[in-house]
Amino acid sequence: DVKVTQSSRYLVKRTGEKVFLECVQDMDHENMFWYRQDPGLGLRLIYFSYDVKMKEKGDIPEGYSVSREKKERFSLILESASTNQTSMYLCASSSGTGLYNYGYTFGSGTRLTVV
Amino acid sequence: AQTVTQSQPEMSVQEAETVTLSCTYDTSESDYYLFWYKQPPSRQMILVIRQEAYKQQNATENRFSVNFQKAAKSFSLKISDSQLGDAAMYFCAYEDGGATNKLIFGTGTLLAVQP
Q1: Could you tell me what percent of chain A has a pLDDT over 70?
Q2: Given a cut of 90, is residue B24 above it in pLDDT?
Q3: Which of B31, B34, B37, B45 has the highest number of chain A CBs within 10 A, making it the mutation to test binding with A?
Q4: What integer pLDDT is reported at residue B99 of this predicted model?
Q5: What gap in Å lies between CA A90 and CA A69, rounded to an integer?
Q6: Do the Cβ atoms of B101 and A107 come within 8 Å?
Q7: Which pLDDT belongs to residue B56?
Q8: Do A98 and B103 touch (CB under 8 A)?
Q9: Mean pLDDT by 10 residues, chain A (115 residues)
Q10: Chain A residues with CB-CB distance to B107 below 8 A
Q11: CB–CB of B99/B31 below 8 Å?
Q12: B104 strand-pairing partners
């Protein structure tokens, strides 16, 4: 069964801490994505990557960075966590674009609380 | 910029009945793809159904079908014979069929199924 695994289900961090959220997929997918999910706002794209060492900004990249050193792993980094980054973070992966995009496979999410 | 609108924050349906969730989108593209995703209380988001804009035929997956109205930019999801397991948050999503398959999500509709 194909999987996208996020390393933590729940995290509590202090304001100003550097936070790493890890995502690993075992499907050899080229594309990987980080979204945050907030009530009433849906899912908003933070960053995505379509190849190793490649990254593109999404709609809300401020305060975040990413790393993709290996095809299977895509990390989201909060350089200095703030309370307004308290949210659910979802990682997803996919293969192909357009006609060959059969949808994302999502991880289970990480609920991050910044205190 | 493309946008996706789900105007029903919450819906309720009786078990075995039919319910329709609404979604509208705004785009100037002619080639694009539309998706419905389901997020049960366990949080893992899964793909329900996919529609290619160039296809006039509405997509169907078992009890799930869509009503795709390209001119009206409308993409509603119909769930027939609703089951308790259909209770979830449903998200409509748009992909513009370009070089990267990033999705733009709506704000979601929370569906409750009454026994």
Answers
A1: 94
A2: yes
A3: B45
A4: 65
A5: 19
A6: no
A7: 85
A8: no
A9: 87 97 93 94 94 92 96 96 97 78 88 97
A10: 40-42
A11: no
A12: B94
Question: Which of B86, B59, B67 is CA-nearest to residue B23?
Answer: B67
- What are B45-64's pLDDT values in tens digits? 999 999 999 888 999 999 99
The tokens describing B90, both together, are 């449903």
> Which residues on B lie below 8 Å from A48 (Cβ)?
100, 102
Q: What is the pLDDT of residues B70-81, one digit of tens each?
A: 999 999 999 999
Q: Does B94 touch chain A (CB under 8 A)?
A: no
Q: Do A92 and B45 touch (CB under 8 A)?
A: yes
- Residue A16 at interface with chain B, using a CB cutoff of 8 Å: no
Tokens 């026994």 belong to which residue? B115
Greatest Cα pair distance, chain A, in angstroms, is 43
Strands (E), chain B: 3-5, 10-14, 19-21, 24-26, 33-39, 46-52, 60-61, 64-69, 74-79, 88-95, 104-105, 109-114
Establish if B71 touches chain A: CB-CB under 8 angstroms: no
Please give the structure tokens belonging to residue B2: 């493309």
